[in-house]
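Work package 3, deliverable 3.1, input record:
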Amino acid sequence: MATKTAGKQDTKSALLQAGIDIMLQKGYSNTGLQEVLASLGMPKGSFYHYFQSKEEFALEIIRQVDAEYSATILRMLRNPQETPLQRLKSYCLWGEKEFLSQDCRKGCLIGNLSQEMSDQSEVLRKELASVMEKRVNLFARCIEEGQESGEITKSHTPKQLAETLINTWGGTIMHAKTVKTKDPIDSFMTVMFDFLKAKPH
Amino acid sequence: MATKTAGKQDTKSALLQAGIDIMLQKGYSNTGLQEVLASLGMPKGSFYHYFQSKEEFALEIIRQVDAEYSATILRMLRNPQETPLQRLKSYCLWGEKEFLSQDCRKGCLIGNLSQEMSDQSEVLRKELASVMEKRVNLFARCIEEGQESGEITKSHTPKQLAETLINTWGGTIMHAKTVKTKDPIDSFMTVMFDFLKAKPH
C-alpha cells in the first residue's frame, strides 16, 4: 500500500516535471496533456488519475517551480560570502547563464504564465500574484541589508527598488527572448547595478 | 471594380481590428479564426480569402498595431509644448490610463505576443524584434534631446536608458496585470523618473 502511494506520488512528480518542461517551451495553451503523458510513455486518459483539470495541473506546476526557485534565490540572496549587492548581481548572472544556455529561449515560467494566463484564469492569477509578492519580499530584504550597510542606494524604499529590479529583469528577459541576443541583458547589468550602488556624497 | 477592391480592403481592415481586440484579450493561441469571423458576422471559411494563414494574419496585426502605436508615441515624444522628460512621463501616464481603463487587463499586444510567440514562430519573432528596435530608437532620440538640454541624466547612453525604460515598463505592466492593482506602476513612476532626472552636481 505504501509502495503504491509512493508510486503514485512519483508518477505525479514526473508528470509535473514533464509539464514544466513542455509549458516552458510552449506556454499553457499550447501544452497538450496527451503530449505530457506521451513524453513519459503513459497511456492516454491516465492524466485524470492525478489531476482534476489542466488548470489544477498548472497550479501545481506553479507551486513546484516556486518551491525550487525560491530555494535557489534564497541560497543566493543570503550567501554570507558576498555583500548584498554582490548577491543581487550573482542572482542576475545566474539567470543570464541559464537563459543563454537555452539559446535565449523559454525564460521564466512564472513570468510567461503571468503574461499568458492572468486574464484567463483567476485561480492561476492569484497563485502567480502570491509568488511575485514573495519574490519582491525576498529581494527587498537583501536590498534593505545593503542599505543598512551603506552599499545600496537609499533613494527609494527596499520594496520599490526590489520591484524595479524584478520588473526590469522580467522585461529584459522578454526583450532578449524576442531579439535572441544578450544585448538587453548587458544594458540591464550596467544600468541597474550603477543605479543600485550607493552614490558617494 | 474599384468598389469591390475597396470593399475587400475594408473587410480586411475589419478582420485585423477584430483580431487585435480578441488577441489582446486571449493571446495568439487562444484566438480562434472562427471567433474573429463570427464577431463580424462573416461566414466560416471566408478567412482564407484575406489571409493565407493565422501566422500571416498575426503578422499583419503586428504591423497594424505598430503603425498606430508608433504614431501615438511619436506625437507624444515630439510634443514641442513639453520638455523631453515631461514627454516620457506623459507617455507613461497615457499608458497607465489605458491599462487602468481596461481594469488592469490586456496590456500591450506587442509585449504579449513577444512573450508568447518568440519561441514559436520565427516569422512573428523577427517582426516583433524589429518593432522593439524601432521603439528603442524613438525613446533614445527623446532621451538624447533631454541629455543635451541637461534635463536627463548622462549616466548612460540614450540607448541604454531607452532600453531600461522600455523593459522596466514592460515588466511593470506584466506585474500589474498579475496583481491587478496599479501599485507596480506607482513604484515605476517614482523610481524611474527620479532615476532619469539629471542629478545636481
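Chain A is about 75% helix and 0% strand.
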